[in-house]
From TrEMBL:
Secretion signal, residue range per the UniProt entry: 1-21
Organism this protein belongs to: Fusarium oxysporum f. sp. cubense
Keywords (A to Z) from UniProt: Signal
Protein origin, superkingdom: Eukaryota
Gene: SIX13
Protein name, per record: Secreted in xylem 13
Length: 293
């Protein structure tokens, strides 16, 4: 049945003023500020989620839903020199990135008798590993096994994690999934496999550093297909504070909201698989980050 992966990205905070200057905070606490804190976890209830729907955030981020581009990542065969279409053809939208360079370094050929260049047709996260699919861009001699999969990858360095980014323009002028490595001090990863029971999946409770009387926390969450890297809609995304529903967003793949929190609030980001994910056994991953304002 459906497997649903949740990664709690270590929350990345923007620079903010402190009494001694600018202070950057890049991790959360996995312990409550007081042992006296107790929380009653609210059971999954769609009627209650409907009461806290964040209409504005849904409208703001609904346009970011991404169409599948796996079949359109490459153009039809043009000729022997450009087996996957004219390349590069990204024009002013294309920017050379490490994925293209990595593909070319692994699969490219540069000799007096032969030249063969490669580029990335997209990448997806696998923990701290960026899984890259490569394709031939240009070759001086016909490539006989052009349809054979050519894979590559980049490992994130210590204290970094793979982040599924928005699509970028490939060398073939197509929008493709893109990843990067971001700084991270703490990583909590939960693997959940559902068989007969479909349920909500929440990241472990986390607490902000001391915020005084409270700060506005700007949350950004997104879910993507674990195999293709394409953003995928969940039936529900929602924020829990102290075990209770705070805000929710139905039928969305990417969500942004601002909410007032303090160091005593237990923070959880939760997701509920869509009917399509359950029907087609789609693996997904939920990533999120927050900035203190």
């Amino acid at each position: 049945m459906t497997r649903f992966h949740l990664i709690l990205l270590p929350l990345l905070f923007s620079w903010f003023s402190y009494c001694l200057g600018e202070l950057e905070v890049s991790d959360l606490s996995d312990q409550p500020p007081s042992v006296e804190n107790t929380y009653r976890d609210q059971a999954f209830n769609e009627e209650e989620l409907l009461k806290v729907v964040d209409e504005l955030s849904v409208k703001l981020t609904n346009h970011t839903e991404r169409a599948l581009v796996s079949e359109a990542a490459l153009q039809r065969r043009q000729n022997d020199q450009y087996p996957n279409g004219v390349c590069p053809s990204g024009g002013r939208f294309y920017l050379d990135v490490d994925e293209d360079r990595s593909c070319n370094s692994k699969w490219g050929i540069a000799t007096p008798d032969e030249t063969r260049t490669f580029g990335s047709t997209g990448s997806v996260c696998a923990g701290t590993f960026r899984r890259i699919t490569c394709a031939c861009c240009f070759t001086t001699h016909p490539i006989t096994n052009n349809d054979a999969p050519r894979m590559d990858g980049i490992y994130c360095q210590k204290w970094e994690i793979c982040k599924q980014e928005h699509e970028r323009w490939s060398k073939w002028g197509k929008l493709v999934p893109h990843t990067s490595c971001v700084k991270a001090k703490k990583l909590t990863e939960i693997f959940i496999a559902t068989k007969k029971v479909v349920k909500e999946y929440c990241t472990p409770k986390r607490w902000l550093p001391s915020t005084g009387k409270g700060k506005n926390a700007k949350f950004h969450a997104w879910a993507y297909n674990y195999s293709t890297g394409q953003f995928t809609k969940l039936k529900w995304m929602y924020l829990k504070l102290d075990g209770q529903y705070a805000k929710s967003a139905p039928g969305i793949s990417e969500w942004g909201l601002t909410y007032s929190v303090n160091e005593h609030n237990a923070i959880e980001l939760c997701g509920y698989p869509s009917d399509d994910m359950q029907k087609n056994s789609i693996d997904a991953e939920l990533q999120w980050e927050v900035t203190l304002e």
